[in-house]
Amino acid sequence: MLSPIAFAIAFGAYAQESHMGHSMAEAQATAEAAPSTTAFINANAKMHEAMAVPYTGDADVDFVRAMIPHHEGAIEMAKVVRDYGDDPEVRKLADEIIAAQQEEIDWMVDWLEKHGQP
């Protein structure tokens, strides 16, 4: 019999694998039907890859380094809405996100430079 902890770990891994596989299959089917889905998938993958920053042990630096690509991903997703979206309210939100996220990216890049971080 599995201990509760071993069960939770085993079930969590199974559930995550099952969920991920299911989501990917659905995403692929939808991607074939909608160019915007392909664009979202690409932006998401690029963002997650870029967020894999080398950690320094400094929570502030690590946070800022990882948040830059996170914000860049938000901008890319907002651009997908501008390219493919129809709802004027959503497109307005996308424009606001682009402006706000870019302002924060600029602040974070400046902060890293001020703190001697690449």
UniProtKB/TrEMBL annotation:
It comes from the Bacteria. Residues 60-118 form the DUF305 domain. InterPro entries: DUF305_CopM-like (IPR005183), Ferritin-like (IPR012347), Ferritin-like_SF (IPR009078). Gene3D superfamilies: 1.20.1260.10. It holds the Pfam family DUF305. This is DUF305 domain-containing protein. It comes from Rhodobacter xanthinilyticus. The lineage of its organism: Bacteria, Pseudomonadati, Pseudomonadota, Alphaproteobacteria, Rhodobacterales.
